[in-house]
Write a structure and sequence with these properties.
Shape: globular
Structural class: alpha+beta
Number of domains: 1
Number of strands: 3
Helix content: 25-40%
CATH class: Alpha Beta
Length: 96
Amino acid sequence: MVSKEEVEKVFKEYIDPEIMIDIWTLGLIYDYKIDGAKVNVTMTFTSPTCPFGPQMVEDIEDQIKRIDGVEEVKVEITFEPAWKPSEEVKEMLGLL
């Protein structure tokens, strides 16, 4: 059975190639659901014109598929609500 911790580990280890911070800390993962062998992810990018977006989706799908028991992964991109960095992320980026 696929665990929440295994899926979250992928998010925590995947580094946004533009900002160089993991997508979990950035808050790019809005939601994810595990339904047996299927994992559905709802996420966003730091901007709608993110040049790395398609590659990020492909990488995340590939990494989640490597988890034992995962047979299908669907990553849905949304821009509602638009991404806004948390105070922690702003501090990490030197914006405070």
